[in-house]
Amino acid sequence: MDPKYKRVLLKLSGESLMGDAGYGIDPKRLGQYATDIKSINDLGVQIAIVIGGGNIFRGMDGEETGVERVQGDYMGMLATVINGMAMQSRLEKIGLFTRLQSAIKMEQIAEPYIRRRAIRHLEKGRIVIFGAGTGNPYFTTDTAASLRAIEVEANVILKGTRVDGIYSSDPEKDPNAKRYREISFDEVYRNNLNVMDMTAFTLCQENNLPIIVFDVNKPGNLLRVVLGEEVGTMVRR
Q1: How many C-alpha atoms does 178 have within 13 Å on its Cβ side?
Q2: Which of 53, 102, 124, 144 would be a feasible disulfide site paired with 131, CB 3.0-4.6 Å?
Q3: What angle do CA 176, 178, 181 make, to 5 degrees?
Q4: Residues 217, 221: Cα–Cα separation, whole Å
Q5: CA 109 from chain center: how many Å?
Q6: Strand pairing partners for 11?
Q7: 22 Cβ partners below 8 Å, 6+ apart?
Q8: Residue 112 to residue 116: CA distance in whole angstroms
């Protein structure tokens, strides 16, 4: 089996790690993701990962708790590092080699983000996990994923979600919602579809970086996507 993509960036939401727990990290879900990641690593695919922090703290919700926006965003960045450490530990438990890089310096637990070093790790077959977003407030982890994917010259962003692609409307509310197999960046804009935040999405469009949105909670889907099967929705020019 020959993979369609040589180097990918996998974007996972923090909420996806919760499983059915409603908070924190579900060991079963973490284990499933690790197994799926191993399946594509075994094919020689170079893998970078960005994980959100919403299962622990969402910066944009901080104001409800009395935390001002910038402080809340930094708290959210630290949450992504916690998730990155959990993923790193689980991947190494099943025999994979990893590196955790942080946009905020914390030398005791992660390397600083250095683009050339990240690319070298990928070339050596190590899985690189990017933590702490972009290191700046007011930017989401979607934007961090787009930026890092462009910087390390990934072939595609694989956006793992709990739905099996992009729909014309919310499939959880509208039974007549239509799933797209492929859609252009312009069509997403015109139809006001929610794929990523605007900054992240525009980065991908301007740099001609395709996005595949797929159901990451179904075991084996990640492998199918990398092999080029019609899973989820492809967004490209």
Answers
A1: 6
A2: 102
A3: 160
A4: 8
A5: 21
A6: 50, 159
A7: none
A8: 12
Is the pLDDT reported for residue 193 higher than 80? yes
The structure's pTM equals: 0.95
Q: Among positive and negative, which fits the CA dihedral 161, 235, 144, 173?
A: negative
Tens digit of pLDDT for each residue in 126-144? 999 999 999 999 999 999 9
CATH topology for the 7-236 domain: Carbamate kinase (3.40.1160)
Q: What is the pLDDT of residue 60?
A: 64
- Measured in degrees and rounded to the nearest 5, phi and psi for residue 114 equal -130, 120
Q: Distance from first CA to last CA of the chain, Å, rounded?
A: 27
- Whether 147 contacts 134, CB under 8 Å: yes
Identify the CA nearest to 15 among candidates 31, 1, 29. 29
Q: Give the pLDDT confidence score for residue 62 in this predicted structure.
A: 61
Span 45-77, pLDDT tens digits: 999 999 999 999 876 666 677 899 999 999 999
Output the six-digit token pair for 126. Answer: 């190590």
Please tell me the distance from the alpha carbon of residue 37 to that of residue 31, in angstroms, as a whole number.
10
Q: How far apart are CA 223 and CA 126, in angstroms?
A: 18
SS3 state of residue 214: strand
- How many CA atoms within 13 Å lie on the side-chain side of 111? 15
Range in 41-45, 194-198, 221-225 with the lowest mean pLDDT: 194-198
Helix, coil or strand: residue 33: helix
Residue 68 φ then ψ, to 5°: -70, 160
- Report residue 20 as tokens: 């059915």
The CA-atom distances, in angstroms, between 227 and each of 1, 9, 120, 179 are: 7, 15, 24, 21
